[in-house]
Design a protein that fits this description.
The chain has helices at 5-22, 24-28, 33-39, 44-47, 66-78, 84-90, 95-106. It has seven helices and no strands. With 117 residues, the chain is mainly alpha-helical.
């Protein structure tokens, strides 16, 4: 039996709405880079003043994608991602702290486009 166009339209519309909701968390991130800069003082010992680490042991954060930084810090805080140093720092961070720090580091020059041209 053939489906009516109405059923297909409903399924397509539902799929589009579900995809939009999947991206809502990144759209709602409202970090403040200036506040994040102030909050980053403790991070600077390992990651540098602007997120460019002078020690290859520690990753550069400058220019990293904001959504990635939010996810990574949240995962350190929850224990889904393990690192003794980051676990100690991240457990005291609020969601707003994480958003502010992510906004600060994402606003810095750092990452380059490494795609093949």
């Amino acid at each position: 039996m053939r489906r009516s166009n109405g059923q297909s339209t409903v399924r397509v519309t539902t799929a589009i709405l579900l995809l939009q909701w999947a991206f809502v968390p990144s759209l709602l991130a409202r970090g403040n880079p200036a506040t994040g800069k102030q909050k980053s003082e403790v991070c600077q010992a390992c990651h540098g003043v602007t997120g460019q680490s002078t020690n290859p042991t520690y990753p550069n954060l400058a220019g990293q994608h904001q959504s990635y930084l939010i996810k990574a810090l949240g995962d350190y805080r929850s224990g889904r991602r393990t690192n003794p140093v980051m676990a100690g720092f991240s457990t005291s961070l609020s969601n707003q702290d994480i958003e502010d720090l992510a906004a600060w580091y994402a606003s810095q020059k750092g990452l380059e486009d490494l795609s093949i041209k």
